[in-house]
Specification:
Layout lengths: L8 H39 L9 H83 L3
Helix pairs in contact: 1-2
């Protein structure tokens, strides 16, 4: 009895590795988005912190410069977050496409294996019938 061999196994392995690579890219983008979100949250917290009660004019000026710097960073990070959201949506499409391609080859493999099992079963039935007839003929001296 021969063993099942799927002709497109290497294609399946390649598509599975492509799917894994696309998922890893998506995971990296999500990690990057979380880092940006955490940084935005920290900047907002820094911007909303109360001022000490006794400040001089120089201290107020330094605080205003610092706040303006934080506002610029916040605006830059918000733009970065929007860009990451767009890139994540595109990458999700790539992951979905790679998954569909992989599943297509897997369905082909499953169908080919089912056909192989059916053919093997038919061959075994034919051999069994042949063996039965040979035994029956020998036992009945025909």
């Amino acid at each position: 009895m021969r063993s099942f061999r799927f002709r497109l196994q290497r294609v399946l392995e390649w598509r599975a590795s492509r799917y894994d690579a696309e998922r890893l890219k998506l995971d990296g983008l999500i990690v990057e988005q979380r880092a940006v979100s955490n940084r935005i949250e920290q900047l907002r917290k820094d911007l909303s912190s109360p001022l000490p009660s006794r400040l001089t004019g120089v201290d107020l000026q330094a605080h205003a410069v610092h706040s303006a710097h934080l506002q610029r960073q916040l605006a830059e990070l918000n733009g970065c977050q929007q860009d990451l959201a767009r890139r994540i949506a595109l990458q999700q499409e790539c992951v979905l496409d790679a998954k569909r391609n992989c599943e297509l080859i897997e369905r082909l493999r499953d169908r080919a294996k089912a056909d192989w099992v059916y053919a093997e079963d038919r061959e075994n039935e034919a051999l069994s019938a042949e063996s039965y007839l040979a035994t029956w003929t020998r036992d009945n001296n025909l």
